[in-house]
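Record 1 of the preview.
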Amino acid sequence: MPNHTIYAPTRGTKIAELPKHLKGSPAAPFVLWLDDLEGFLGNQGINPTLLDSLERMNVAIVATMRDSLFETYANSRGHGVVAEENPSRQIGNRLLRAVEPVFIDRSWSDREIDRASKTLDERLADAVAHSNTYGVAEYLAAGPTLMEEWQRAQRVGGHPRGAALVQASVDLARTGFGGAVDIDVLEDLHEKYLSSPALRPESWDDAKSWATEVRYGVSGLLIPGEEYEDTWRTFDYLPDAVSRTRHDRSDIPDFIWKEALDLCPEDDERWLIGVHAYMDGRNDFAIAAWEPLAMDGNGGAAAAIASIYEDSGNSDTALYWRQAAFQDEFLSTAVPYDPTTPLYRPETGKIAVGHSRDGQVAEIEIHKPNIGVRHGIIAGEKGIGKSNHLTLILLGALTSSRYRLLLIDWSPEQKHFHPFIENGAALSFSVGNLKTSLGILSNAARVIEVRRKKGGYVNPNIEKPGLLIAIEEAHHLFQISGEAKSLCLKIAQEGGPVGVSLFVTIPDVSLGSFGGSVELQKEMTKEDNFAFYMGTGNGLRMLRDVRKVQADGEFEDPYE
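->
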């Protein structure tokens, strides 16, 4: 309905006089938008007289109503005692019989989910991640309301015991434990959150009933488990919201970490619990989570434990776990490149870079369809395979015919880009030369300006290819050239939507690796960018440090 003005009154607004305000208005024609129609029915809202007036003025009315309420109003006849006791039901019945309703499925289609997955909004990304369980809209709409209700309950006269029950379940989920828990377990755990008898907590039955009650026809604060009767887990929005809100985050109590591990999670979940513990600075529980995996031959877990002991100065114990890690064949097996198998998938923007422990293809997303290309960091100590990893990315981009390569090599060996250069696969290149390196970056910056004016470069293709700038051992370049840092910052900030991508290899994510530039460090380590922190132990350490870099407040270099 182009060229219409939307009039959207708030719920409860007395709109009976609306025709007087709209008649003769230069803003016509109008669309009257009534969100939750039931709130606008009655003598001072939508009534038969007002409806007739709006129809004569050609005011289109668009409204929403939940399924259950629609059934209530649509099936009520406007006569007799019912009409006398509830005139709004009569009005609603007349309205609903005069329209052709559009029913919206609670679950989104595969195409809708696919489009939503390409957004950079973390709230929508969370909703998409849980879309197999909830509808995306109900997750987004019910989540904040449930969060507020939970927070309000933690008071005298509220539901303090119910709030404690929900808190126990939320904290379990924050450890990385994803399963439903027997209600008896939650009953024991929640008591430890009720530290103040002054809150006058309600009875256990009332608390359980309140926490599990379904609100808005969508979800309760706790939802039932799928495998066993009377098992419960938190509505996923709650731990997601707590994790997103840094200032409101509370420490997870020791007894919750212990319970998460005592619940005997699967190996993958046990690894995840260890990662969550490590990120929260709880190395004791990280070790407790990973040790059984390491003893069972998981070299990644052993390397992660070794890293913790190295950080604490316990070199003997670290050596033991390093030796255990070396015995894992998976960590020492090189993944060969098969030229007959395409590395790049244009429909997803992903490049295959190897295989995971369970044999699944490991991929990285260098392009977000309909949004733009991504930038990336490959960080790790010398000899760990950063250059080989970058080579696979370059091969995938090159063989797709959707990218042109701009290669800058500042490694001491200056050998990793030779196959591309010798075979004419690079659009331009520089090997340890500051002038030509700056020339490549300056040209890329100019391309960004031109493409911004033209548009149409979010999806690299043969006609409008993306530019992939790769800088080997970029820290050497950043340490000697302020201009290089400025140009790379511009590319990182503006290049994505116009198909200009920047990938760098560096030893770590310290400020020194970015030539002392706080802006470049923060920009390149953003969550929107691809990051591969190599080395199981060192990689986790860098991931934890990146969170410190991105945290709000005064900057502090985690490597100082």
